[in-house]
Amino acid sequence: MEEVRTAQVDFFNLAGMPNVVGAVDGTHVELHGAPLLDDEYIYTNRKGKHSINVQLICNARYKITNVCARWPGSTHDSRVLRNSRIAWRAFRRRRATWHLGWRFRLPPPALANHPTTGPTRQC
Questions:
Q1: What residues of the chain score a pLDDT lower than 50?
Q2: What local confidence, expressed as pLDDT, does residue 95 receive?
Q3: Cβ atoms 73, 36 nearer than 8 A
Q4: What confidence score (pLDDT) does residue 104 get?
Q5: Sign of torsion, CA 72 75 81 83?
Q6: 17 in a structural domain
Q7: What is the domain range of residue 29?
Q8: What is the sign of the dihedral through the CA atoms of 108, 112, 114 and 119?
Q9: Distance between CA atoms of 65 and 86, rounded to whole angstroms?
Q10: For residues 69 and 54, is the Cβ–Cβ distance under 8 A?
Q11: Residues facing residue 98 across a β-bridge
């Protein structure tokens, strides 16, 4: 719990934003030469490239505190976040935990993962 409070204080001192514990964003890591076979369409992102959608969360000191690199490129960033361990923790605690990066508050986590290749465990 002390780590959360420290993160909140750091973000408040940095930008004057209360209750922020992390900055979150997604990026696509392009796959070169990976044998995708029948699953090729799942890894095709919105730009037509084959990739994995990677979510990163960092604190106010730019330390990466969470990485999720298991979703295919066709998966939207919001689905990655909704199905992350971070979202489950916030939902379970019923707290107003905010992460910067997207313009929405964490919704209740999705009950189902990606329909064809969803992770078997959360990041």
A1: 102-120
A2: 58
A3: no
A4: 45
A5: negative
A6: no
A7: 22-123
A8: positive
A9: 11
A10: yes
A11: 20
Indicate whether 13 belongs to any domain: no
Is the Cα dihedral 103, 24, 70, 81 positive or negative? negative
Domain total in the chain: 1
- Report which of 12, 27, 28, 14 is spatially closest to residue 98, judged by C-alpha positions: 12
Question: What's the confidence (pLDDT) of residue 31?
Answer: 94
Q: Is residue 14 part of a domain?
A: no
List the one residue out of 32, 24, 81 whose CA is nearest residue 52: 32
Residue 72 lies in a domain: yes
Structure-token match 């990739």, residue found? 51
Q: What pLDDT, on the 0 to 100 scale, is given for residue 113?
A: 42
pLDDT (0 to 100) of residue 35: 85
Alpha-carbon dihedral angle through residues 55, 115, 96, 68, given to the nearest 10 degrees: -20
C-alpha to C-alpha distance for 86 and 30, rounded to whole angstroms: 25
